[in-house]
Amino acid sequence: MSRRFQRATSRPDGRGFTLIELLVVIAIIAVLIALLLPAVQAAREAARRAQCTNNMKQLGLALHNYISSNDAVPHVYPLWYWSSSTANNGTSDGWGGWSPQSHMFPYIEQGPLYNGINFSLTNRYNGSAANLSLLGTRINSFLCPSSPIAKGNVACCNLIKTPGNNYFASVGASTGWESPQNPNGLFMWDYQPGLSGGKGWAASTGAIGIRDITDGTSNTIAFGEWRTGDFNCNILSIPQDVISQNPALNWPNISMNGPWAGTALVSFMGWLNNCAAVAPSSITHGSNWSYNMSGLGDVWDQGLLGHTLGNTLLAPNPNIPNCRTCQWNGDWDCPGMYGLSSFHPGGGNIGMADGSVRFLKSSTAMNTVQSLGTRAGGEVISSDSF
């Protein structure tokens, strides 16, 4: 091989990238990714919000199908039984009323689950053995894609994980939830006089149907969205944590039903301020869940505030946590605020009694939110106020 040919073949084809040029290219790509990432995230959140809206739409349609079949909305009826009760197969005392959501299963393509539940037995504690294996069933249409999956366990059973529930049935602009408290929303815990084997000692309010929504179905909230709790009582998460066990949270001497005005409004605002003030102390009690109740939206079965029932006292995502008024350690069966929240920027979804779904802004006036929660309050709400 000649030297001339060797020189020709060994000569490089061209100059390669220098280190500086390579770094410049990487920097340009990084800048482009940084510019595109917010748009991609916004598009993904828009898709999740659309799915969330569709979930609530299904609940609204299910509600109307239920009303068509039963001429009333599904109430929660208590199932309190004592050890001598034949209705509970002679087991020890237990309790737990089934939620409105669970009664609508046949209308959201959950017929097999509905047929598997024994609604004559309690859904919690000692009376729930026959139903316990079903309580961990995760229902995708009850879960907002923007919210984390619920943690923890059903009824302290380590084998059954909490299924989660991001959509509550509204008791209205009311801290009360039982029929004797006369909550002004669409749903409530309704006692049945003479309930066999139970505590049917209070008068029932009777069925609530379309005819009773005199404010108009398009102006009345049926379902609201909330964030799933963090399930950690050592962390303060606002607004979804429910603060308890503090004398400052005693309910003032005003009606349990809003909208509040005048001196009652001043008292209500004072209660809200107390709620915000005592919230940081709720995580100073170690692992005591009864001060910082972090299981909001854990299940779909239990017809109690914080599980499947909520209220409409403030616009979504306030800087005030939820708070309950009772000073005793127990479950969520206590008046208080269990309100609207979401992981959607700027607000949260609400399902109206006519089956439509609206996006309620976090900037919506408190009086408007409370007026939307009532079924027969007689409030006049402007179409551009929310």
Description:
With 386 residues, the chain is of the alpha+beta class. It has a domain at 39-74 and 137-194 and 203-373. The protein contains six helices and nine strands, in the order ααααβββαββββββα. The strands form two sheets. A five-stranded mixed sheet has the order 5-1-2-8-9. Strands 4-3-6-7 form a four-stranded mixed sheet, with no helix packed on it. The longest helix has 52 residues, at 19-70. The protein is globular. The relative contact order is 0.15.
Summarize, please:
It is built from six helices and nine strands. It has 386 residues and is of the alpha+beta class. It has a domain at 39-74 and 137-194 and 203-373.
Distance between the termini: 87 Å
Tell me, briefly, the overall form: globular
Number of helices: 6
SS-derived structural category: alpha+beta
User: Biggest sheet: strands side by side, in what order?
Assistant: 5-1-2-8-9
What characteristics describe this protein?
five-stranded mixed β-sheet, 386 residues, alpha+beta
Q: What's the arrangement of secondary structure elements?
A:
Blueprint: H1 3-10, H2 19-70, H3 100-103, H4 111-116, E1 167-170, E2 221-225, E3 242-243, H5 262-278, E4 292-293, E5 309-310, E6 322-324, E7 336-337, E8 347-352, E9 357-361, H6 366-373
Parallel strand pairs: 1-5, 3-6
Antiparallel strand pairs: 1-2, 2-8, 3-4, 6-7, 8-9
